[in-house]
């Protein structure tokens, strides 16, 4: 998969995904939902790869979808955690924007990376908690950041190794072209599931 996500609200997101060894099952799954108030976006990496990893990651995405109307992001993550009980674990990075306040709430557990250009043009990169969703109770920490309309962001799973993050986040090229540049760093036949979302907040 490599395509611009279709937004009804001028948010721009280029989504890329390629499964380990080009397998049919992908352990990385994404969630993207937008309404007039903001975006809810998540990337989930099921432990390992193949069918079982995909099953765990899909269970998390389904839980996010079913609970997306909950006010608290931590509560959505708690429901997602319950969803992988008895399955493989999963890493998660999830965030929600509030268009009116120009704020972003972030929660990350495990090895997914998220970068954003903040309100003063500084690079924002929240550090995720160690561990993964496992179904066992765990502390869920969220962080809040401010951004500006048009702020760029990049989120990617650990299947992508990327040097020089800043050149993509501060690029003058449009989102799709920036996405293609990042894509050129991905192996034709990757050794892990690779997913990234390169985007730009609604102007
Ligand atoms: Mn991975």
UniProtKB/TrEMBL annotation:
Specify the PPM-type phosphatase domain's residue ranges: 10-201
Q: Which domain of life is it from?
A: Bacteria
Question: Which Pfam families does this entry report, sorted A to Z?
Answer: SpoIIE
Q: What is this protein called?
A: SpoIIE family protein phosphatase
The species this protein was found in: Listeria rustica
Phylogenetic lineage:
Bacteria, Bacillati, Bacillota, Bacilli, Bacillales
